[in-house]
Design a protein that fits this description.
Elements lengths: L7 E6 L2 H12 L2 E5 L2 E6 L2 E7 L20 E4 L3 H10 L3 E10 L2 E8 L3 E8 L8
Parallel strand pairs: 1-4, 5-8
Antiparallel strand pairs: 2-3, 3-4, 6-7, 7-8
């Protein structure tokens, strides 16, 4: 059987530099500069940013979802501390901390370029698997 392994996620933004700066400031991403582009690394995940100078965003009512990749998620050990950090970074809080299910809490933020990010805290000892 062929093994598929994670390589990267491609992001598009009207302002790649602003998007990269936001990810570095708010999600502690490492900025990786390459000739003619700016990319990111969060843990072992590569995020490539394509700059779309003339990009338009579609104004959707808050909470409305679109077909395609809706968001990506990152995990933290302390969601309260991460949320306070995001508020301090003036991140666009889309949904404050809420209980997803037993042992899992989350919040959603949006970066420049309208990239939706879910920040999760998983506590396996509290999870129910029935």
């Amino acid at each position: 059987m062929i093994e598929f392994r994670w390589d990267h996620l491609q992001l598009c933004s009207k302002d790649a530099e602003a998007t990269a700066a936001w990810f570095a400031r708010c999600l502690n991403a490492e900025i990786v500069r390459r000739p003619g582009r700016v990319d990111l690394r969060i843990g072992n995940i590569n995020l490539f940013i394509t700059s779309l100078a003339g990009a338009e965003t579609h104004a959707l009512p808050r909470g409305t979802r679109m077909q395609g990749i809706d968001h990506f998620g990152v995990t933290v050990d302390d969601l309260e501390a991460a949320f306070a950090h995001l508020v301090n970074c003036e991140a666009d809080i889309v949904e404050p901390i809420y209980q997803v299910r037993a042992g899992v809490r989350a919040c959603f933020v949006k970066s420049p370029g309208d990239i939706l990010v879910e920040v999760l805290e998983r506590r396996p000892a509290e999870m129910t698997f029935s």
